[in-house]
# Entry
Amino acid sequence: MDALLETRNLSISFGEQEVIRDVNFKAPKGKFLSIIGPNGAGKTTLFNLLSGQLSPTKGEIYFKGQNITNLSAAERARMGMGRSFQLTNIFPELTVLENVRLAVQSQRKDFYSILPKPAKYRKQLEEARRLLDMVFLKEKEDYLAINLTHGEKRKLEIAMLLALKPNLLLLDEPTAGISVEEVPVILEVIENIKKDSENTIVLIEHKIEMVLALSDYLVVIFNGELLVEGEPGVIMQDERVQNAYLGGLSHAASGKS
Ligand SMILES: Nc1ncnc2c1ncn2[C@@H]1O[C@H](COP(=O)(O)OP(=O)(O)OP(=O)(O)O)[C@@H](O)[C@H]1O
# Structure
């Protein structure tokens, strides 16, 4: 299996509490992998370890075959690891289009482009509009970002993330806090991303129907350990998953987090 991302005995403790314990998994190139588990299982902590927000107490992380355990979040981002920004990178007083254009511009290769300025700008706008189309925000390109709904801001955030052309997308609960009506649109956006690119995607999501609709592979975390991994159909039938998770998963399926 050609893994883009791999963890080996990944562990982290906060004081006495070992929150992630000897987690080993591989995210194969071009596949859609979801990390599931009940509240407090350690999913967000695992994500923070992957993206470099936290350093492990033990174990290693490999990305594109390189040991990145000691690299900062910024260095991992430069290598092509993209994590959703949790809305913190959006400029509220700029238009939707300008937010995405700036993300396109921030791509390193734009700084070295030999195109004259107006042509460069036009190309950035073109790319920004293509991305806004992918996330169904084209009609809102002239809106100030501050005036978007929460769900629309999540879509803008995804467009900005895609502008950086990451090889690996880490999506942390893209439906968190959004209205029930907006959930199917977010699902469609992610399906679009999945179709359009060769990206490897790792998702944390409580809405189990969404996880099942999107994922090639599931990793189940329970009490900080990897309980089981495999294809969704197999995992959902797994007795250990049913025994350990029934409460948590049916809770998640109801849309609560
Ligand atoms: N910085 C920290 N210091 C101490 N304990 C922490 C810290 N971060 C997380 N924890 C603990 O680690 C455990 C796992 O938390 P984490 O947020 O990773 O779980 P989760 O699976 O993402 O939960 P949820 O689905 O509710 O978001 C929890 O018991 C939490 O209290």
Observations:
- Confidence is low (pLDDT under 50) at residues 249-257.
- The chain has ten helices and ten strands.
- The radius of gyration is 19 Å.
- Residues 217 and 230 are 5 Å apart (CA to CA).
